[in-house]
Amino acid sequence: AKWLKMSQPDKWNNDLPEKSAEPETKESTVTIEVLPNEPPEEVKKAQPVDYELNKNEDSLQLVVHVPGLESMQDVALDVTEKSASLSFPLSANLQALEVDLPSSVHPAKVKAKFSKKKGSITVTMPSLTQN
What we know:
Elements: H1 10-13, E1 50-55, E2 59-65, E3 76-79, E4 83-87, E5 97-100, E6 111-115, E7 120-126
Antiparallel strand pairs: 1-2, 2-7, 3-4, 4-5, 6-7
């Protein structure tokens, strides 16, 4: 780190008033509002998500019930070989979901379909085939 030392010529200080021996004191009032430990009523707790996991011959199908979800915007889906997780926007008021899968799936071939009418997201995950 570099330190810089600056000095002012005496001529710059000629216009300044003389300093008094006593420091100036100013009184000020600060208002502090104590908030309750609980969130405001308008902040609701996220609701748990219901889901079904079905095993077909060549895939797993995860059906997640998302009542009130308007679109897939801001919904995050992450699928690995052994798990699937979804998180939802705060406005949906839904808890994130993580599901351990009973068999390995191919993450790159996953397809998801949202049905606003049914209030569900269907995630189809093709099974990894053993060679």
